[in-house]
C-alpha cells in the first residue's frame, strides 16, 4: 500500500507532463483537423435553406448554438482549462461524415415522391429502426418556429427518433466512459436517421435526415410536439420511459398519413419538475436557472458561461441527466421500439411489459 503510494508520488511529475502534452496535442488536432471540418458541416447545414421549396425559419426562430464548434473554440482559446479528452478522432470523423451524408443525400430524393405509407411499410420501418437500436418514435407536423435560423426543411411531416443512452454509464458521470458512450449514441443515431431517410427514398417517399448533433430544428420542444415527452427544467426532453436518458434526431418525410400523438399528454412532467428541482440543486456550478429566461420565443434553461467550462474539464459532465429521478430505475430491454400513437394496443402492451 505504502509502496504503491510512493510510486504514484514519484511518477506524479511525469504524469503531469503527459497531461500537459496530451492537452496541447488535442488542441492542435482540434484547430487543424476538427474545427475546419466542423465549420464546413455548419456551412452545409445552412445550405439546406437554399434548396428549392425549402421551408425556412421565422424571425422568431432560435439561432443554433453549435455545441461541438462552440466547445472546440472554447477549448482552443481557453488555455486555462484542462480539457478531458474522451473520444477518438475516428468518432468525430464518423459524426461529421454522417452529418454530411444527411445533407448531400437529399439530392437522391425521388422527383415526385409519394405521400402514403402502407401498414406493411410502417411495420418494416419499425423493424429497421429496431435493428438500429432506436427506442422511441413519434410524429409531428412541422411548425416553422423550431427550425433553426438559416436552416431549411423540405417536408412538413416528421418522424422523431429517440435512442436510449446506457443507464450504467450515465450513472458513472462525469467520466470518460460516459462521454464515450454519449458520443457513440450520437453517432449510432445519426447513422439510423440516415438509413431511415434512405429507406423511405427507396420506397418512393422523400426523406431528409436531421442529425442528432446540431440538427436543423430545436429538438426538445420538437420532440415534445411529437408526444415523446416534455421539456424539463434542465432544458432536455424528459420521456416517461427513460427520462432525459435519450438522444434525439428527426427524419422529415413526404408521408402524410402519419398519426399524431396528443402533444399535451405529458404535461404532468412539468408539475413533477416543479416539485423536484434536483438538477438545479446538484449542478456543480449552479448553471441551471431556477426559472427559465424567456426572451421573445427563446427559452434559456442553462447559463452556458458556467456550464461549458465545467463540461469541457469534466468529460462532458452529464450530472444533470444522471441525477434526474426520471432517468433512473428503468430501461427498455433489448431495444424494442415504442411507437407513439402508431402501434396497435397489443404492441403497446408488449412494450409496457418490457420496461424493467
Ligand atoms: S452538464 Fe453539468 S455543468 Fe452543465 S448544466 Fe448539467 S450539471 Fe450543470
Ligand atoms: S432533475 Fe427534477 S427538476 Fe430537473 S429535470 Fe429532472 S425531474 Fe425536472
Compact summary:
This protein is α+β, with helices and mostly antiparallel strands and 356 residues long. It contains twelve helices and eleven strands.
What does this structure look like?
With 356 residues, the protein is of the alpha+beta class. The chain has one domain (23-354). 45% of the residues lie in helices and 14% in strands. The strands form four sheets. Strands 5-8-4-2-11 form a five-stranded mixed beta sheet, with helices on both faces. A two-stranded antiparallel ribbon has the order 1-3. The longest helix has 45 residues, at 2-46. The chain is globular, with a radius of gyration of 21 Å. The model is unreliable at 332-336 and 342-356 (pLDDT under 50). The chain binds iron/sulfur cluster (SF4) (2 copies). One iron/sulfur cluster (SF4) is lined by residues 283-285, 287-288, 302, 307, 310-311, 317-320.
The biggest beta sheet reads: 5 strands, mixed
Radius of gyration: 21 Å
SSE string, helices as H and strands as E: HEHHHEEEHHEHEEEHHEEHHEH
Secondary-structure-based class equals: alpha+beta
Count of DSSP strands = 11
Number of H- or I-type helical stretches? 12
* CA distance, first residue to last residue: 41 Å
Strand order of the largest sheet: 5-8-4-2-11
Strand percentage lies at 5-15%
Low-confidence stretches: 332-336, 342-356
Descriptive labels:
two-stranded antiparallel ribbon; disordered C terminus; binds iron/sulfur cluster; single chain; alpha+beta; 356 residues; 12 helices; 45% helix; globular
